[in-house]
Amino acid sequence: MSVVLVLPLLIIFAFTSHSADAVWCACRPDKSDVDLQKAIDFACGNGADCAAINQGGACYQPNTVRAHCSYAVNSYYQKQKGATGSCEFSGTAAVTSSDPSPGGSCSFTSGGFRKLVQKKSPHLSLIVLVLVSFLLCFKLKGLSYFLLVWFFVDISFVCIFHIDESRNH
């Protein structure tokens, strides 16, 4: 019986835990300084916190367009909570799992905004849950256990997709 009660909690934790999914937005190294400056101007003019790349700021050095670009677009991306398209900047930037911070006193904010549908296929997850449910049903030898597991699976998916959808708004 304890397996039936613990399984849904493990499922919810597995799909909603994002601590290992730190992501940043960084400018692409193959883009021109003109394109990078356009990205900086857009990001800083639309809500990014660009104080750190101003003279005397923690991320001012190195004082190059290339160095300042990743800070600005990442700040914008994090303020947008990783919304789809918030790290494109006309192809000048891309989402990365590698920390683009230059080090020292300059540290870029990271977020865990990868969505469930980007990270894992919901169809594959559903198949796995069906298999686990059937295995529990055979182990516990009862339809009531199977129905109880499916009740929790259904609630888990509703919670997962509700959390995922709330991050999009």
From TrEMBL:
Residues 23-108 form the X8 domain. It is found in: Cell membrane. Its main location: membrane. The keyword Nucleotide-binding does not apply. InterPro entries: X8, X8_dom_prot. One of its GO terms (cellular component) is plasmodesma. Residues 1-22 form the signal peptide. SMART domains: X8. It is a lipid-anchor; GPI-anchor. The chain crosses the membrane at residues 121-138, 145-163. It comes from the Eukaryota. Keywords: Cell membrane, Disulfide bond, Glycoprotein, GPI-anchor, Lipoprotein, Membrane, Signal, Transmembrane, Transmembrane helix. This is X8 domain-containing protein. It comes from Papaver nudicaule (Iceland poppy).
